[in-house]
Amino acid sequence: MMEGMEAIVREHRFFADLDDDFVKLIAGCARNVRFNAGDYLFRAGEPANEFYLLRHGRVALDIAVPGRGMITIETVSAGEIVGVSWLLPPYRWDHDTRAVELVRAIGMDAKCLRQKCDADHDVGYEMMLRFVPILVDRLRALRLQLLDVYGTHG
Amino acid sequence: MALAADPMAPIAARVARVRRELKDVWTIDIEVGSGGFPFAPGQFNMLYSFGVGEAAISISGDPARPNTLVHTVRAVGKVSGALTRLKPGEFVGLRGPFGAGWPIDVAVGSDVVLVAGGLGLAPLRPALYRLLATRENYGRIVLLCGARSPRDILFRIELERWRRRLDIDIEVTVDHAAPDWRGNVGVVTTLIGRAAFDRHHTVAMVCGPEIMMRFAASELVNAGVSDEAIYLSMERNMKCAIGHCGHCQFGGDFICKDGPVLTYRHLRDRLARSEI
Hints:
The complex is a heterodimer of chains A (154) and B (276). In chain A, α3 packs across α4. Chain A has 154 residues and is α+β, with helices and mostly antiparallel strands. In chain A, the strands form two sheets. A four-stranded antiparallel beta sheet of chain A has the order 1-8-3-6. In chain A, strands 2-7-4-5 form a four-stranded antiparallel beta sheet, with no helix packed on it. The N and C termini of chain B lie far apart (38 Å). Chain B is of the alpha/beta class and 276 residues long. The mean pLDDT of chain B is 93. Chain B folds into two domains: 88 residues, Elongation Factor Tu (Ef-tu), domain 3 (Beta Barrel); 161 residues, Rossmann fold (3-Layer(aba) Sandwich). The interface between A and B is medium-sized, with 28 and 32 residues.
């Protein structure tokens, strides 16, 4: 069973080229999950106990805006990661995440992974090397989004 | 239609049809008669609204149908606003075509990635028509489109029609959406990393707001595309359109004459400089 999960973890591009030992360690925190269209992976305010590596499908990140209702601020697709709030205290989600279509993913137990990163800093460093480019990419995209380039001033 | 011998002298051309594309965007069809009005994808014309003024407008129609000249215009100022208020049967002044177009021939044998932001799909559409008309000459063709919201997606019906073809990959994203939108949300640059193309043999054509083109070109370079294989369509305040008046000067280039389509390698050091 674990060998199966190791294979699934290794297939995801987030863990590409990761050492076998690390894969084995990380797979211990992983489980297969599935969401139907409309299901929530997590809701704003809930503890960030699990993040997801999408294997199939697309999810929407929604934020409730007073007076405007729910606004989708980003979608995330297969091959990408959902959820970064588990990395830092207070470990709580600040948006809803909803399956737009059938989603298959690897659910990573965040507390389990944080403990492994604390116990073995090589694992922690490896995780940091993989997460920082994602955060930088999202920051870059957010900057462009903030510029509202398609407005009449664009 | 015979072009005027003097490139500064407009000819009078009859408006055949005007249709609204989006809240503030219209497409104008201009009759040019049996002689046609040959142009290269990516070129622009100077359209003159009599008594109001002249503006540079990219050609957005099919180069294989030169008898009808198509322009897509956003009403943002006096001239563009007047152009969008034209009625069928009325006349418009026409000069052109001007400028260097998209590298359709350079792209032969390569994958082609088109990145369009907002109204940027209009100048890219003639390139796509040409690519699809000679589909066998190219590898993978990828069209990545960004818009502000679902209701701001330009040429939506045509995008849906192209999407039904099996020989082109099309992804559309919007910057913001309500939860009933089932497509991508995020800036258009986020689509580049997800798209499949051979980075060693790709020609990219990018059109949209300049800041979006900068980010897109940077993302294409990150994806492994050479900066000399990335082409951007620049927009500046074109007046004479033949490189005499200097209004569209951008460093050492006149965008009207040397552009509007130029390589990222040629432009990159100037793009981030606000003083140019």
